[in-house]
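Name: REP15 protein
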Amino acid sequence: LQIAVQALQLAELFHSEGGPAEVEEDCCREAVLADEHFQNRSRFEKLAEFCRLVGRDCLGLFIMFGVPGKPKDIRGVMLDSVVKEEQKCRLSGRNALRQFVTSTDSFLPTKDMLESCLGAKNGPKEVGNVYISFL
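Structure predicted for REP15 protein:
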């Protein structure tokens, strides 16, 4: 099992992607090379493509900070949940993630999420419409 993680603050989902601040963050050579390969794709598409390239044992996980009303919460959202939200609500990845984080009240403890991922023989079990609570 491999978990590819992307960490972001919820406030980032309300700003346009690909601005100068994001370019300044790309200080590593590997990141620049990866950006060239994944040029013209959103961060959500990049994570999905990366997981696809690694294989079916790679899960995408977004770590969210700064949830309105719960600033100390750290929430995890599986890439599969974002994809389902995209399809259900016909939203872009960014908007689907924002919708999921702000409208989902149910959660799993980190231990349960890991058991679900590690305990399944044919890939992770369906966790449903929940986020992962890290705190």
